[in-house]
Amino acid sequence: MSTFWGSLAEAASLILAWDPALVEIIGLSLRVTLTAVVFGCLIGLPLGAVAGAFRFPGRPVLIVALNALMGLPPVVIGLLVYLSLSSSGPLGPLQLLYTPTAMIIAQTVLVTPIIAALTRQVVEDLHGEYAEQFASLGVGRVDRMTALLWDARYSLLTVVLAGFGRAVAEVGAVIIVGGNINHVTRVMTTAIALETSKGNLELALALGMVLLVLAFAVNAAVMALRASAVRAAYA
Amino acid sequence: MLRLVLSSLVLSACMAVSAHAEDRFIILQSTTSTQNSGLFDHLLPKFQDATGIAVRVVAVGTGQAIRNAANGDGDVLLVHAKSAEERFVAEGHGIARHNVMYNDFVIVGPPDDPAGGTAVNDATLAFEKIAEARVPFVSRGDDSGTHKAELRLWQAAGIDAVSASGTWYRETGSGMGATLNIGIGMGAYVMTDRATWIAFGNKGDHRILLEGDARLFNQYGIIAVNPARHPSVKAGDAQAFVDWILSSEGQAGIAAYTVDGQQLFFPNAE
Amino acid sequence: MRDLAESMSDLNTTAEPVMSAHGLSYGTGRETHLGPLDLAIRAGRSTVIMGANGAGKSVLIRLLHGLLTPTRGQILWHGAALKAGARKRQAMVFQRPVLLRRSVLGNLRFALRVRGVRKGDRVAREQAALDAAKLSHAKDRPARRLSIGEQQRLAVARALSTSPEVLFLDEPTASLDPASTLAIEAQIAEAKAAGVTIVLVTHDAGQARRVGDDVIFLDAGRVAEQGRASDVLTAPQSPEAQAWLSGDLRLAASGTTGL
Q1: Which is nearest to A233 in space by CA: C129, C104, C112, C150?
Q2: What's the mean pLDDT in A4-30?
Q3: Which residue of A130, B34, B67, C252 is 20 to 30 Å from C78, comparing CA positions?
Q4: Looking at this predicted complex, what is its ipTM?
């Protein structure tokens, strides 16, 4: 238990000291994950909306696939992306391996099914409410999709945060495609793995606590944003 | 407000993609034990100062490092598994193999030494005692240089430890650090390289119980990846690094690296 | 049971039906929920569809509006077979107001945009709808935060803003208090005065009396009776209508069951 309190103290001092190495790592974690979440939304939100609002052949298969892919292990994604980006792989000429871009690609692959699958459920539930009125008004396909996505925006915010949480906490994908290179591709989770492998457990745990604080901060910021938007709607 | 957040997100995305665009760098595929010892943090800046070439280290298990290099995903390979290295060159992935440095392996264990009498210089004797007493022994079990060296010792002692896997012989399939964490947690014996042990932060009460046997010698080799086989390799800069590390400057740098006053690696390039 | 021809001659009018149904039937699986039945909706008048719960009123109105496809029979729109495009000349209001999570104005704008109303025309119609619903003061408020009476007024105004020929309403005031009910009925009356054909499903005989010109009385998926509202409601001829109306609390209280 002394490890725990020691780590808590170390985490606090790391944060307060604004340790430059730590700041760099946090910065990269946020940039990689946030970018991946943005791309994940660009693909996943429309995909989920289409699957939720429309009927088409193969729809049940798509839904099962999306739901199943939510459980894809990050390390497997890391392997697949590594094999694709490797110099001997199909995308080798791009020379993207061991760069933050590779990490973004891997995390986008991780996050997109989660966003798509959950969006699909949210939109499908909502669509039930609106189906008859939309049919009556003659709402076209694109309008239906965008109207449902906008209408579900608060639920979708939680979906996006779920994607963020999954990505910021994973290590399997980013460590294989990024290589955990100091000052280049080292993020919070890979740093924690490194310190653990060195036996520096207190530091590893302290970094873990900092990661938790980070996740809290992001979620709190999003909720504050939402609250101010709701307040503005009342004015 | 929303636009401010959105635009800063987009800006971050652009920054992430173009982050750390250094002018010249090579990728060095090496092992976690070498990385964790701190040698690279000490040595590589010297090379960068001398040549302006940054060295980006991808530290993974030995097998993975060799495989990555064989895929052309590295410019230089530095591991400690001589026969695998020689095979790497024979298969055309590397130009040539050179000795760089050596250190040694040690056996660490709980202070009360339950197997009895391991505080000797004879590794095979120690292994026999451990197997006889059926005291827990944690192995890396991951085909790394360390693991292969360990298996050679069991073979020399005439003991088939792997068949006892899951009982007193535990295979973690993990790197040195994780294996040490597990072994110390179990009060077991572990074979580790000295460099990792000295730098390790979670020793608990464990101490070195066996050292000095000639068979615990651990040789490191460096290989430049073959540009004829993998055209994307930065052949010129990779060779510059190999040449530098084998030069008197590089070798002195290796010898100068100490932790707690102890030298961890001994240069032995020809 | 009166057939279509009798009803038409009784009404003594030359008004052409804007919609009519012939041999209309709807079922799922082995069950027939509705029909076969024949009916006519006359232009510019307000037709009330009544009956007990489960009689098929909701199914019928959805068939007419094209939200359900008949299993048998035909629906005619201006004398021709009903096609998907006809729905653009119609609008519907449901029992619970279906509004998007955006402002009052946003909801109006959405409907008008979907119906392809041009921007210049749109602004005028939005204002007209707000005035008709008496919601100008709340145009930027989230629509879902209005009281349910106000939400339904908005839903009716939204439907009318698209200038439909026929306005369908499926029990629009079932969840509303008397004041809101009268407000909705006023909107309906205004629409009818402007020439919109009204088709209203209700289980409230008082509302049928206030709002309806013609009544179609359904029982167990068949037309039990149809004719002028004043006739059917005061002197129902069919046993089903008589039985149902005699059980109506308001009519019983005012003692005008006419049995």
Answers
A1: C104
A2: 89
A3: A130
A4: 0.87
Query: Each residue of A118-137: pLDDT tens digit?
Result: 999 999 999 999 999 999 99
Q: Which one of A129, A132, A140 has the shortest CB-CB distance to C67?
A: A132
Q: Nearest by CB to C114, which of A138, A150, A234?
A: A138
Structure pTM? 0.84
A31/B230 touch (CB, cutoff 8 Å), yes or no = no
CA distance C70 to C63: 7
Chain A hits for B61, Cβ within 8 Å: none
Question: Residue B27 forms beta bridges with which residues?
Answer: B56
Q: Cα A159 to chain center, whole Å?
A: 10
Q: Which homologous superfamily is C4-254 in?
A: P-loop containing nucleotide triphosphate hydrolases (3.40.50.300)
Using the Cα atoms of residue B111, residue B117, residue B121 and residue B123 in order, give the sign of their dihedral.
Answer: negative
For chain B, which ranges sit under pLDDT 70? 1-22, 117-121
**Per-residue model confidence (pLDDT) at position C31:** 85
Chains touching A (at least 3 CB pairs under 8 A) are B, C
Query: B261: domain CATH number?
Result: 3.40.190.10
Backbone angles phi, psi at C151, to 5 degrees: -60, -40
- Chain A closest CA to C103's CA: distance in Å? 8
Of C13, C134, C24, the closest CA to residue C74 belongs to C24
Q: Which of B232, B254, B219, B221 is nearest to B75 (CA)?
A: B232
Give pLDDT tens digits for A141-172.
999 999 999 999 989 999 999 999 999 999 99
Residue in chain A nearest C112 by alpha carbon: A137
Question: In the structure, do chain A and chain B come into contact, i.e. share 3 or more CB pairs under 8 Å?
Answer: yes
